[in-house]
């Protein structure tokens, strides 16, 4: 890590584990529940948020000294909305099918609490480079959880990964299906994501007991 | 033998496997230590006795379920007997053989996986093994179809015990009934194995599509499709109908329920109010039909015109009311709350049955829903009681004691 000082490196590392936006701060849950039935959608969503949060944090940080405090939320919304429109248009142009799967949830990145949270808590008080690292870090922390949840939900729910039939063909009964295995329909429905996220939180906190909140 | 076990226990006290040893030990023998101080009410029965009493009440249902599994299997192949005789057609070795080979593995898997996880958690967390699973493990095989694949049951049991119970802190802390959590998981994860006309009869799934195909639709399933069923009222009451393993015989469930009421294990308030709730909803539906508000071609017509009291005889309603709704952990705790809690279980069960063709049986959903609301019901019952007493306190005339005045003076001084 010669590229980054230790302090800067922590800006990226912390949100990945001990200060994860989903499992520790419990933000951005709605999209984690809605779009993680497929791994592909999870990855695209993670990349979209990475772009919006990385660029958005830099923009906000650059103009932080000229934003009047009273209307800062509106300014933040304008920035994030513009970025989300860019993402939405790019998806529609190059991955139309996927943008239909993600449907309204790309637009709803605007209301993702993680983004407004980072703007408010970090970008408004720090320089552009630091804000960029913080944005990347938090988006990665969000993305990691999304990909983990998406991996398990798609594998157990549909028997596929990125649409590839890794467990065999359920119709012609090959692979695991030939010995009577069946897909778990429960993993397809959104409540399953809540349970998978819950299990991740459980595992993380029992590995690092310092993270357990006082009741 | 007993003495030796006690010595062994002392020797291994504080070791990692101690909870596992203690669990087996106290299951068979009364422990030799007694309460020395602190508690003032000492009952002869501990949690294990309570659980064993419920299991005793379940045994008739289990045995009946075994015979019924065989009876339904052979009747689906050879046709139902013309003149039914209990000993020639039902209580036969052939029937029992089918039953024991299909039902016993379910029981073994349920107990094996469930207790295994309980032991594991007890050893990891270092507490004693809790008794809660004894009843759950017996309930689970009784509320699922006979041919449920064992690996599905194993996954569902693991899910139900870990997510339904252990994450909340184990027996006594769970908000949802673990047995019903397991059934709900099976239902949503593998719906093709939990509904339809193929799953209720042994071997029906394997024979589907061949020349020997057999099927057996439950009464509710037939009604949901608007078709007729061929079972008499007596069949429904005594339980000679297709259905989950142990839920069919209303007679034996009533006997088990009476046993639980007289041994004061289960709450009669919940049972009575749930029956009232189911009857009330059934009467409302029958009333709608009688008033002619619903045209005959409606898909709800057959289920809504089903006589209100017969809802109690079919499906899992009776079983759910007697054995599941009365779970002391997940149900309401206050006496008044129990009336509301039970009433809504019966009311909602019949409502889900009729209105949701996707779920031909709604009992488990209704009970799980009311499990969630039970603490809220209790909260309002307790608050209502506090309000009532405060009101009584305000209107009451309280004569000041002479000592009160003395205290007042010292305070102001």
Automatic annotation (TrEMBL), chain A:
The chain crosses the membrane at residues 43-63, 75-95, 101-119, 131-152, 185-203. It catalyses: a ubiquinone + n Na(+)(in) + NADH + H(+) = a ubiquinol + n Na(+)(out) + NAD(+). Its main location: membrane. It is found in: Cell membrane; Endomembrane system. InterPro entries: NqrD, NqrDE/RnfAE. It is an enzyme of class 7 (translocase). The keyword Plastid does not apply. The keyword Translocase applies. It is a multi-pass membrane protein. Belongs to the NqrDE/RnfAE family. Composed of six subunits; NqrA, NqrB, NqrC, NqrD, NqrE and NqrF. This is Na(+)-translocating NADH-quinone reductase subunit D. The gene is nqrD.
């Amino acid at each position: 890590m010669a590229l980054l000082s230790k302090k800067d490196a922590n800006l990226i590392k912390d949100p990945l584990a001990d200060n994860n936006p989903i499992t520790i701060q419990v933000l951005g849950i709605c999209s984690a529940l809605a779009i993680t039935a497929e791994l592909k959608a999870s990855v695209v969503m993670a990349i979209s948020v990475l772009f919006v949060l990385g660029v958005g944090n830099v923009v906000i940080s650059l103009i932080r000294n000229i934003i009047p405090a009273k209307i800062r939320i509106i300014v933040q919304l304008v920035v994030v909305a513009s970025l989300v429109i860019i993402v939405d248009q790019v998806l529609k142009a190059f991955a139309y099918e996927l943008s239909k799967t993600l449907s309204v949830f790309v637009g709803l990145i605007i209301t993702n609490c993680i983004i407004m949270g980072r703007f408010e808590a970090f970008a408004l008080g720090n320089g552009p480079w630091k804000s960029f690292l913080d944005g990347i870090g938090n988006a990665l922390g969000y993305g990691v959880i999304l990909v983990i949840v998406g991996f398990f939900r798609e594998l157990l729910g549909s028997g596929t990964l990125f649409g590839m039939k890794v467990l065999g063909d359920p119709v012609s009964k090959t692979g695991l299906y030939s010995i009577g295995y069946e897909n778990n329909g429960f993993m397809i429905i959104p409540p399953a994501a809540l349970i998978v996220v819950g299990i991740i939180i459980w595992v993380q906190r029992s590995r690092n007991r310092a993270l357990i909140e006082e009741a | 033998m007993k003495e030796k076990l006690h010595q062994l226990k002392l020797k291994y006290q504080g070791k990692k496997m101690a909870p596992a040893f203690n669990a087996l030990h106290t299951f068979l023998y009364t422990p030799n230590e007694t309460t020395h101080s602190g508690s003032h009410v000492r009952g002869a029965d501990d949690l294990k006795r309570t659980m064993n009493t419920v299991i005793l009440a379940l045994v008739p249902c289990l045995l009946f379920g075994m015979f019924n599994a065989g009876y339904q299997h052979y009747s689906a192949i050879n046709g139902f007997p013309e003149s039914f005789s209990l000993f020639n057609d039902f209580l036969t070795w052939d029937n029992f053989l089918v039953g024991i080979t299909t039902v016993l593995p379910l029981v073994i898997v349920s107990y094996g996986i469930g207790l295994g996880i309980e032991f594991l958690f007890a050893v990891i967390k270092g507490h004693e093994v809790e008794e809660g699973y004894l009843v759950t493990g017996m309930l689970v095989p009784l509320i699922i179809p006979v041919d449920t694949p064992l690996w599905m049951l194993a996954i569902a049991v693991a899910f139900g015990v870990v997510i339904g119970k252990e994450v909340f802190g184990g027996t006594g802390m769970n908000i949802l009934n673990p047995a019903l959590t397991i059934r709900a998981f099976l239902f949503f994860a593998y719906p093709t194995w939990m509904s339809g006309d193929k799953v209720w009869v042994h071997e029906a799934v394997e024979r589907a599509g061949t020349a020997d195909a057999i099927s057996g639709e439950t009464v509710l399933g037939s009604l949901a499709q608007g078709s007729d069923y061929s079972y008499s009222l007596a069949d429904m009451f005594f339980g000679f109908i297709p259905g989950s393993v142990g839920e069919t015989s209303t007679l034996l469930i009533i006997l088990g329920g009476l046993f639980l009421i007289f041994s004061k294990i289960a709450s009669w308030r919940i049972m009575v109010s749930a029956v009232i709730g189911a009857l009330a909803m059934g009467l409302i539906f029958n009333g709608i039909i009688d008033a002619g508000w619903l045209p005959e071609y409606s898909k709800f017509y057959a289920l809504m015109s089903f006589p209100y009291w017969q809802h109690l005889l079919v499906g899992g309603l009776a079983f759910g009311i007697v054995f599941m709704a009365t779970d002391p952990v997940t149900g309401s705790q206050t006496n008044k709350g129990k009336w509301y809690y039970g009433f809504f279980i019966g009311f909602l069960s019949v409502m889900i049955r009729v209105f949701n063709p996707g779920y031909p049986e709604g009992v488990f959903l209704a009970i799980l829903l009311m499990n969630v609301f039970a603490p809220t019901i209790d909260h309002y019952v307790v608050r209502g009681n506090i309000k009532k007493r405060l009101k009584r306190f305000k209107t009451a005339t309280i004569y000041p004691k002479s000592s009160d005045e003395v205290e007042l003076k010292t305070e102001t001084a």
